[in-house]
């Protein structure tokens, strides 16, 4: 049986509904983690989570409405679903596309900002992905505007609209691949820094899972599938397109959960002496190496989630020149109060 556009739209909404159910569970966990944080959660974490939830929910509602209208609005008209889905300038279709573009831009902004944070707020590193993000905004707006100009009967895979759509997906994919590689490389670098403080060897899967989850690699892979189905003129593209929004929510809410639990980088807040930067642990290592042999810090076995505890048991007066103020203050405070402090490394 040949897959038609109405059939693909119907299957797409079904898959989208299933994915949305999974997304609701992940979103609930995401908000629960952010509420229970000891420190005030970052605005960009809360803002991203809430924005995605509103947009993804609205996208599903519009898709269900479009399906109901396509298959029930005019049952007397032969092939009415094909006629309905072949009309692109309806307000429902324009709203659906606007919501999808908004979901994409919010997720792109999130992964771009995470790359920026992970690389120590390095503007040079973030410049090219940021320019791609600006281009993505422009093409996304142009795409939605073009929908209002499409006349009934135009081929969505061959006319001017397809050029905008392919350009939008291509720029989004390029930006996400770059950010994914930047994040993955940084996580690998951090794992290498933390490795000397761990006992035993992690299996390959335990090392790859954080990289895959935190880098948003799943989203980039879906974009490749989306572009592939679109360029092959396959109606299956509508299945991927409809289900993409909740899948984006699942991917990026999972990242927010890891950041909120303190299992990842990307959150500038710290609580209870927790430092979330690979540079900080390197500075701590340099500083501790300057202590006398009798007063060396004692490194305990890794905590749950791969944390590393640094216990300073004696009072030592050490000048740690070259360290950032917040790290030097943490060291001085730990020395002077004769207390153990734990520094979490992700």
If you had to describe this structure to a student in words, what would you say it looks like?
This protein is an all-alpha fold and 346 residues long. It is built from 11 helices and 3 strands; from the N terminus they run ααααααααααββαβ. The protein has helices at residues 5-35, 43-72, 80-85, 91-118, 123-147, 160-194, 204-215, 217-231, 236-260, 278-289, 325-336; strands at residues 298-299, 308-311, 341-343. A 3-stranded antiparallel sheet has the order 1-2-3, with no helix packed on it. Helix 1 packs antiparallel against helix 2 (43-72), helix 2 packs antiparallel against helix 9 and helix 5 (123-147) runs antiparallel to helix 6. It is globular, with a radius of gyration of 25 Å. Residues 265-346 have low confidence and may be disordered.
